[in-house]
Each structure stands twice: as C-alpha cells, then as structure tokens.
Amino acid sequence: MLGFLILIFVAVPVLELVLLIRIGNWIGVLPTILLVIATGVVGASLARSQGLAALARMQQELAQGRPPVASMIDGFLIFAAGVLLLVPGIITDVFGVAFLLPPVRALVRRGLANRLRRMAEAGTARFTIMDTPRWPQHESHEHEERPRGRDVTDL
Q1: How far apart are CA 95 and CA 89, in angstroms?
Q2: Rounded distance, CA 103 to CA 4, Å?
Q3: Given a cut of 70, is residue 124 above it in pLDDT?
Q4: Which phi and psi (to 5°) does residue 70 adopt?
Q5: How far is CA 8 from CA 2, 17, 28, 98, in A?
Q6: What DSSP string describes the chain?
Q7: How far apart are CA 151 and CA 18, in angstroms?
Q8: pLDDT single digits (tens) 30-61
C-alpha cells in the first residue's frame, strides 16, 4: 500500500511534469496550456452529465427496490474521472477519459467485484456498517413518565 501511495503522490506528478515539458517543446507552450485547460473544462462537463445520469439510474433502481450497486460504482468512477480530468496532466487525463467510457467502467466494476469477492473468501475484507448517532446522545428518556389513562392496543 505504501508503494502505491508513493507511486500516486511522487512518481505520477514527476511523469506528468516530464510529459508536459516534452509536449510543450513539441507543440509549444501556449498550445500545451490550452490543451490542459480544455481537457479540464470538457472533462468536468462530461463528468457532470454522466454523473447526473448515474444518479438518475441509482434513483430508478432504488424506486424499483433493487440495490443500486453498479450505479454507485459507476458514480464513484465518474467522480474519479472528473477529479483526474481537473488535475493538470496527460496521464491523469487519459485515465479520466477512460473512466468516462462505459465499457471501461464495466471492466473496472467487474475487477472490483472479483477483488472484493476474493478478499471476502480469504477473510481479509472488512465491511463496516455505520449507524447514525442518536440525537442528543446524552439525554435519556427513561425518566419520563408514561401518559396516564387507559392502555391503547393498535390492531
């Protein structure tokens, strides 16, 4: 895991910088800057429209009583695509555009499902269910008196 984090936060930015310098030398500084800005704007627009479509699919699946697992993963990947496209660089743009393509998202979704299944079978997956806290937590209603009068039985 540490190697993965080093790759993301050190190696990728260095590679992005080297690639941007080379592209800048090849096509010029201004076209390179415009390319970076254009991919950010177009990517944000595409991520927004596809994200709204994924949200609509989630709501539709919930309304039909089905768990929206695939739509939730798609929504996460579309969000990740938007973030990657907003980060200046060619490598992140390639991955961002790839995550916007439905066939690529389907492959990633299957890969994630297989990995989670293997982790669950090996006993290395941990799933946590978080409940909302009671508000306010410090108050107890045990000291309250029952309403006086006859008991009511609801049928």
Answers
A1: 10
A2: 25
A3: yes
A4: -65, -40
A5: 10, 14, 27, 17
A6: -HHHHHIIIIIHHHHHHHHHHHHHHHH-HHHHHHHHHHHHHHHHHHHHHHHHHHHHHHHHHHHTT---HHHHHHHHHHHHHHHHHHSSSHHHHHHHHHHHSHHHHHHHHHHHHHHHHHHHHHT-------PPPPSSTT---TTSPPPSS------
A7: 78
A8: 999 999 888 888 888 888 888 888 889 989 98
Tokens 């980060």 -> residue = 87
Distance CA 97, CA 78 (A): 9
The answer to whether the pTM exceeds 0.85 is no
